[in-house]
Amino acid sequence: MSSRSNVVDFIHRPNYITIMKRLQAYKFELKLSRGQKRILKGFAGSCRYVYNKSLALQKERYEKSEKKLNYAGLCKQLTAWRHDLKLDWLSRTPSQALQQSLKDLERAYENFFKKRSEFPRFKKKGRQDAFRLPQGFKLDQINSRVFLPKLGWLCYRNSRKVEGKLCNVTISQSCDKWFASFQTEREVIEPVHPSTTAIGVDVGIAQFATLSDGHIFHPVHSFQSRQSSLIKWQRRLSKKKKFSKNWKKAVFQVSRVHRKIAHVRQDYLHKITHTISKNHAMVCVEDLQIKNMSQSASGTLARPGKQVKAKSGLNKAILDQGWYEFRRQLEYKQRWRGGMVIAVSPHYTSQKCSECNYIDSGNRLTQSEFKCINCKYENHADIVAAINILRAGHAQLACGEMVRLDHSMNQEPTEVTQAKVA
Ligand SMILES: [Zn+2]
Questions:
Q1: How many CB atoms lie within 10 A of CB 30?
Q2: Which of 232, 249, 282, 401 lies 20 to 30 Å from 151 when distance is taken between CA atoms?
Q3: What are the start-end ranges of the H helices in 190-295?
Q4: Is the pLDDT score of 9 beyond 90?
Q5: Cα of 385 to ligand 1 centre, how many Å?
Q6: Which residues does the annotation mark as catalytic?
Q7: Stretch 263-286: mean pLDDT, rounded?
Q8: Using one digit for the tens of pLDDT, what is the confidence trace for 329-341?
Q9: 359 alpha carbon to ligand 1 midpoint, in Å?
């Protein structure tokens, strides 16, 4: 095994101070009365109405080959609807929240045009009820309460101090709970990573992540292990009369299982990414196009997909593991610590011998066994892959050909605002 890990050292010990902008979100659970919950539901409902109505309008304009309305055009349209359609009830919701949902629609279109997401869809009642306020709200941390326009003060479970300038607040519902998420912005001195080592990470199905130092993180199958209970509740749901009391109960149970799955996965990913990011200044990963890999395998009518069943199984496994989220978390955690993530080309990382660089598909005996045909070197296949990824990362760094990381992946993007040479 090579020991070139100190390569990182000179790159990561700059003798000037850089100030960077850190965007961070803080999420708290709200403590609400029944009346307050009802009002929040109303706010979210109005925002959903405005969003859906605007989306319908944009689609209609598209079909008539008319130009898409921009944000200002949509705002005008909103005022017109209020007057023409007598939508007086909309005025019960803070107008900034309604305008924000128009902005959200704009963003959804932009993401679609930039191929970051699918075409915007209509929002459904009871699914991700939420609204956002860019201003007009107040945060009183001492008394653990938040002020929303047209509603008043709401208490929240104050678990940590919010730092920085408040940018906006998102109020959302998950099952029977409501949350407030504050987006903040502050300037911090760019940190220097406490460690100087580098590590290669191979992600897979059998093992969630394997490190080049031999450490293995086993997968948690948060979805697979709860699939049966999910199916059970979904079946019960399908037999109930829609909107009946029992139907509502079943809907609640289904969303509870979903929330549990998401929590278990998220918690585990945070633990792994924390451990890796804490211990290593440079993390090399394979630049897997997860979006493409996990795309629908069934194809179109004209061009049906191959191995549909096998691929959909792989898709489920990939999405269950949360590789995309893993990379996103690694990137922002590394940035916050002053480390880096290098994405390398995934070619031959699993077939190349890490001792003699001999590439052959025959090197790989089974899923987990690796034995070089050329030099007889033996190791766990995932560890060999991780070592190759680390090597490729070092090579990339030496050549200076950094792969630009996709910033749309980061919810917590940070950018360098100014650099001062000391
Ligand atoms: Zn070899």
A1: 21
A2: 249
A3: 227-239, 245-279, 290-293
A4: no
A5: 13
A6: 202, 286, 382
A7: 92
A8: 999 999 889 899 9
A9: 8
